[in-house]
Specification:
heterodimer; A: mainly alpha; 34% helix; B: 486 residues; six-stranded mixed beta sheet; five-stranded mixed beta sheet; globular
Chain lengths: 101, 486
């Protein structure tokens, strides 16, 4: 196996995912088989190939990053937005304590 | 409980609904009520819809009926019973992405695609089931249970837009919106026997589409025929100031020239799409479809697209890398579910561990790995380079041909549960659709007959970037020739 159990736990930590014991084993096997499969890309010589960072066909977008003017507008849906939060006050999202003093 | 369906032969289309409304043979309210009743009756078996929006639908129907009463000109999609995939935000209507993570979530705004269709008179009936966060090719990854294929109830409808495809195929909507990241409109269209289209990257606004992979995601329509697909695209397409990736390219009336002959059109047939793994019956149907196009006067041009075999590997590195980033926002703070934790970090980890399903977590893990320190160049950057080569295959092909025709899927609809054990095998079945997704070009799947078991087969047509008009014309010509022959 090219993917170790430690790799799986490290990635889960990076991705903020709590995994059950069965999940760790399953993802180790799955990641291993998928990452082994994608190694076929190494058969291609890509030296001198520019990575494709822009999908939009040439001419579809204005040159460079399209920017609009930064115009202040009132937000009229704060109540609707906060109503969807698991925990909120009338003006803020609430989260568990972040800083210990 | 269900009123008699006011049928006109072959079912409703956008044009027949508008005509019936203006001639007062039916009201939009009657049509809407009728479809809602049909859904109540049939949906328990199919599980195509996750939620209905009857109040919003009837209010919209009444607006259309008021226009009829005032003898105003009816908008393009007046009264159209529409289903919307549950990854598109709808104000005040629960939008879950088929995930426990967003159970009960009501967005505060509408997706531009939905807004534009409603402005044109469409009536949204409800939200459709899909693979969780649009990740899957069978609809079996939904947290709310799989969808059944109305053509064969023991089979999957395809995915990820399985509910939208099934709704149209079972006549629980006249048209539907889906999204396509690696084949999620085209493949369920093929499996359910209806046309489904992925527009050019940038053609349709993605504002309000809950993101999976931003360099790949597109919004597109399903309908009963290519003409209706074209009409819906004409309404949805175009620049949206709220989506900076939407293209500032003129929008055609895609329905206007559909009947023009396709004689002389050069259709490319890439040999790379007809190799091992292709079901012999699918191959036979697609070859027959190409022969039909040749009879219509199209010229068959054999093509080589040598990087096709690398597309699945490229796609699953790029799509999962982008997904791991996009789905970082689900942390139990602003929307959806939260699992309690003593610290903020513990709350994040528990919420994401419990809220996401198995396939979503698998893809987040894979994408996080591919982007992590020490692996970025080997996986993500390598995939971006191969993506450029795949796009180059398409660019070179379109120097010689006007369209590329292939099978949509190597296999017809498979049985529920048949393929869930091996994630890699499921990914490999995306081989013919992910290529066009990576290249950014438009593609459509149109029905091309059935296997001996009666399972639909799809013919996939790719057009050049922003070449939807000619692609739809070819699809329409084939559809007309096919139904005349049948």
């Amino acid at each position: 196996m090219k993917i170790t159990r430690e790799d799986v736990l490290r990635v889960a930590e990076l991705a903020h995912l709590e995994l059950g014991e069965g999940e760790v084993d399953a993802y180790q096997r799955h990641l291993d088989s998928i990452l082994t499969y994608v190694e076929k890309l190494n058969a291609l010589d890509t030296s001198g190939v520019e990575p494709m960072a822009q999908v939009a066909p040439a001419g579809a977008l204005a040159a460079g990053t399209p920017l609009r003017d930064d115009i202040e507008e009132p937000c009229t849906i704060i109540g609707e937005v906060l109503a969807e939060a698991p925990e909120a006050t009338s003006t803020h999202f609430r989260v568990p304590k972040v800083i210990d003093r | 409980m269900s009123s008699p369906m006011p049928k006109n032969d072959g079912g409703w289309t956008i044009a027949s609904i508008r005509r019936a409304l203006s001639e007062k043979r039916i009201s939009a309210r009657e049509l809407t009520t009728d479809y809602l009743a049909r859904i109540e009756k049939r949906n328990p078996e199919l599980n195509a819809y996750l939620a209905l929006s009857p109040e919003r639908a009837l209010a919209q129907a009444d607006r259309v009926d008021a226009m009829v009463a005032r003898k105003e000109p009816l908008p393009a999609l007046a009264g159209l019973p529409l289903a919307v995939k549950d990854v598109l935000s709808t104000r005040g209507v629960v939008t879950t992405c088929s995930s426990r993570m967003l159970e009960g979530y009501k967005p505060a705004y509408d997706a531009t695609s939905v807004e534009r269709l409603e402005q044109a008179g469409a009536v949204m009936l409800g939200k459709t089931n899909c693979d969780e966060f649009a990740m899957g090719g069978s609809n079996e990854n939904s947290a709310y249970g799989p969808v059944r294929n109305p053509v064969a109830l023991d089979r999957v409808p395809g995915g990820s837009s399985g509910g939208s495809a099934a709704a149209v195929a079972a006549d629980l909507a006249v048209a539907a919106l889906g999204t396509d990241t690696g084949g999620s409109i085209r493949q369920p269209g093929a499996f359910c026997g209806i046309p489904g289209m992925m527009p050019t990257y940038g053609r349709v606004s993605r504002y309000g589409l809950i993101a999976f992979a931003s360099s790949l995601d597109r919004v597109g329509p399903f309908a009963r025929n290519v003409r209706d697909v074209a009409s819906i695209l004409s309404v949805m397409a175009g620049k949206d100031p709220r989506d900076s990736t939407s293209a500032d390219v003129a929008v055609a009336d895609y329905g206007a020239n559909l009947d023009e002959p396709v004689r002389g059109m050069r259709i490319g047939v890439p040999t790379d799409y007809f190799g091992t793994g292709l079901d012999p019956q699918v191959k036979e149907r697609v070859e027959a479809a190409i022969a039909t196009l040749e009879r219509l006067g199209c010229r068959r041009v054999p093509l080589s697209m040598p990087h096709t075999d690398y597309a699945v590997a490229t796609y699953y590195l790029i799509a999962t890398a982008e997904a791991s980033s996009n789905l970082a926002r689900y942390d139990g703070v602003r929307y959806g579910v939260r699992m309690p934790g003593a610290t903020l970090m513990e709350m994040y980890r528990k919420t994401r561990g419990k809220g996401f399903g198995a396939e979503v977590k698998r893809r987040i893990m894979l994408g996080t790995y591919a982007l992590s320190a020490g692996y970025y160049d080997a996986y993500y950057l390598k995939a971006q380079k191969v993506r450029a080569l795949i796009a180059q295959d398409f660019a070179q092909a379109f120097e010689q041909v006007d369209a590329i025709v292939t099978p949509t899927s190597p296999v017809p609809a498979f049985r529920l549960g048949e393929r869930t054990a091996d994630p890699l095998a499921m990914y490999l079945a995306d081989i013919y659709t992910v290529t066009g997704s990576l290249a950014g070009v438009p593609g459509i799947s149109v029905p091309a007959g059935s296997t001996s078991e009666g399972l639909p087969v799809g013919l996939q047509i790719f057009g050049p970037a922003f070449g939807e008009a000619q692609m739809l014309r070819l699809a329409h010509a084939y559809e007309q020739a096919g139904s005349a022959a049948a």
